[in-house]
Write a structure and sequence with these properties.
The protein has one domain: 3-Layer(aba) Sandwich (Protein Transport Mog1p, Chain A), CATH 3.40.1000. It is mostly beta strands. The mean pLDDT is 90. A seven-stranded antiparallel beta sheet has the order 1-2-3-7-6-5-4, sandwiched between helices.
């Protein structure tokens, strides 16, 4: 995955620099994003809810459930994009003052909306080094 930065915009937290890693393979777009919103950490539930709402706004929501990685709870959502634009799946967490999301979009050219690689990707995160599997990849920081 290639690292970079972007601007995360939030009605609650304002604008923040975000670290983002992206990749595209077999007409599937993968993205991991981390936003430091530590100054607004006391609003973690609202920030997480806002990110989830923005993710699914204007789409057809197919799945929405609570997710858990180690001792951190988050949300998993699956949506169909408008105009037959594909399917997107994401996990959202708020951990140590940071909003974390893993998203994958299966583009129509791929068409395999039950692709197990997508689920594996969004479920691949580990917040504790000792919990990571042996063949894990640590994402490099953007320059």
């Amino acid at each position: 995955m290639s690292p970079g930065t972007t601007t995360y915009r939030s009605a609650i937290a304002g604008q923040h620099r975000a670290l983002v890693w992206t990749a595209k393979q077999d007409n599937i777009e993968y993205e991991a994003m981390v936003v430091d919103v530590n100054a607004e950490a006391n609003q973690s539930a609202r920030l997480l809810g806002e990110a989830e709402y923005n993710f699914q706004e204007g789409t057809k929501l197919l799945n929405d459930h609570v997710d858990r990685v180690e001792r951190h709870y988050g949300r998993n959502l699956t949506v169909d994009l408008p105009n037959n634009g594909g399917r997107r799946i994401a996990d959202f967490y708020f951990v140590n003052g940071r909003l974390v999301s893993l998203q994958a979009t299966i583009l129509p050219a791929n068409g395999d909306y039950d692709n197990p690689d997508v689920v594996r990707f969004v479920d691949s995160i580990s917040f504790a080094l000792e919990a990571a599997v042996d063949d894990s990849t640590e994402l490099p920081l953007p320059k």
